[in-house]
Amino acid sequence: MSLADRDRAVVWHPFTQAATALPPLPVVAARGSWLQLADGTQLFDAISSWWTCLIGHSHPRIVEAIAAQAARLDHVLFAGCTHPGAVELAEKLVARAPAGLTRVFYSDDGSTAVEVALKMAVQYHAQQGQPQRTRFLALEAGYHGDTFGAMSVGDPTDYAGPFAPLLWPVARIPVPTVDGDPLLTDADMLPALAVLDRLLAAQGETIAAVIVEPLIQGAGGMRMHPPAFLRAVAARVRAHGGLVIADEVMTGFGRTGALFACARAGLTPDLLCLAKGLTGGTLPLAATLATDAVYTAFRGPDARTALLHGHSFTANPIACAAALASMQVAEDEHILANAQALHQFYRDFLPRCRDLPDVRAVRWLGGIGVLELQGGGYHDADRSRRIREACLARGVLIRPLGPVLYTMPPLGSALSDVAAAWDVIAAAVAAHR
Ligand SMILES: Cc1ncc(COP(=O)(O)O)c(C=O)c1O
Questions:
Q1: Is residue 213 within 8 Å of 251, Cβ to Cβ?
Q2: Which residue's CA lies nearest to atom 10 of ligand 1?
Q3: What would the mean pLDDT of 129-157 be, rounded to a whole number?
Q4: How far is the centre of ligand 1, averaged over its atoms, from the C-alpha of 250 (Å)?
Q5: What would you report as the CA-atom Rg of the chain, rounded to the nearest whole angstrom?
Q6: Domain region containing 401
Q7: Strands 286-291 and 101-107, sheet pairing
Q8: What is the pLDDT of residues 62-97, one digit of tens each?
Q9: Do 173 and 139 lie in a common domain?
Q10: Which of residues 330, 357, 385 is at a domain's end?
Q11: Best probe residue, ligand 1, of 250, 253, 273, 313 (max atoms within 8 Å of C-beta)
């Protein structure tokens, strides 16, 4: 029996309709930007394995750090204990994060980083004498993960499904999206800000925080917005006493051409969520960074004012070692410069794709390049499916978000490989109407 057949007998895959999905790709090895299938086929991982693989697969220095740490200290509980990797990683994150974020709370993945931020926001206000601040504001088309809190603040349109009745009511702010380069493109923000102003006038006293994916909303369709919009949202929410949560689970660690999208946007959040690229994409690990003001509100003589949240594998030492190695490799190998070079490539290449059949828009930022086709919702994108299969047949792995095709390759990719991948994508768009 093939691996795919054995898989189909016992495995349940995420975001996959088993009745109609193609057999899963049997991946047996990976190196750099390339995945190897059981039959020896090489696939270019144009989406960094769900945006996790920051530099390249199985980077020797990260692999070595993982092996050495596994032999030294595999795991220890993180309540009442600490270890060198967790401390050093927190020091490095604090040193590199937007100013004012001085505390690191570890968890496991993007969803838990968001859950932690949401809980911190609510409890912070409660302990500041404002227990009525339990509501969140979020951006339309946002995605923050699949646990219940993260689903609540995410846009319910595509992902909430049968869980919708269980989600908290969250007020959503329209987003003035732009195509092209969001750092150079203006948008009319006034209608969106007018909605926000009305929401704040009605509910401002009950708002715990606003949560944003800065500059690029990922799973909602790689939608981009100008930095001025983020700053305006943050200023208005703060003026009404709410906190600002930046979800950089996707954008963190250089994807937008700066270490954090917040820095590009001139936004200093109260809480910052990190995961995916934190370990270079090798192991699950997440962090929620908080300001001193937030952290201080949890200190006191009463055990119940602590943040009563934690996971078995909080700050796993092997994952921390991977994160430290990944951050060092990213610096040594000039990953930010690579993201900027990708940005230049997209800027030159993507506008030419506007002439392909039924292309609605192109946009790009740092290592992320996007081609949006006309029509089709998230669950209804037959054309995208055919394009994906055509790309696979030519050695390029993409995973369209409905009508949105994009690449977000490992930032250690050769520019020539990314260019070749886009030739394949453009040819598939031309061939499949
Ligand atoms: C912006 C953002 N936040 C949170 C998440 C959830 O992360 P995870 O899948 O690691 O739980 C994702 C995942 O794609 C994301 O893009």
A1: yes
A2: 110
A3: 96
A4: 7
A5: 21
A6: 3-55+334-431
A7: antiparallel
A8: 999 999 999 999 999 999 999 999 999 999 999 999
A9: yes
A10: 330
A11: 250
DSSP string, 361-377: EEEEETTEEEEEESS--
> Which token pair is 296?
């201080």
Question: Residue 225, class by beta-carbon neighbours within 10 Å (0-12 exposed, 13-18 middle, 19+ buried)?
Answer: buried
- Report the distance separating Cα 217 and Cα 404, nearest Å: 12
Question: Do 259 and 181 fall within a single domain?
Answer: yes
Cα–Cα distance, 128 to 134 (Å, whole number): 13
Q: What confidence tier does 379 reach under pLDDT thresholds 50, 70, 90?
A: low
User: In what helix (H) or strand (E) does residue 273 lie, and over which residues does it extend?
Assistant: strand 271-274
Measured between alpha carbons, how far apart are the two ends of the chain, in Å?
36
Instruction: Give CA–CA dist 219/402, Å, rounded.
Output: 10
Say how many Å lie between the CA of residue 193 and the centre of ligand 1. 26
Q: For residue range 44-58, what is the model confidence (pLDDT) as tens digits? A: 999 999 999 999 999
Strand order in the sheet with 396-397: 27-31, 34-37, 42-45, 396-397
CA 267–ligand 1 middle distance (angstroms): 20
What the block records as the tokens of 187 is 């948008």
Same domain, 404 and 266: no
CA proximity to 106, closest of 311, 295, 283: 311
The answer, as to whether pTM is greater than 0.90, is: yes
Distance between CA 297 and CA 280 in Å, rounded? 32
> One-letter amino acid identity for 56?
G
| Domain total of the chain | 2
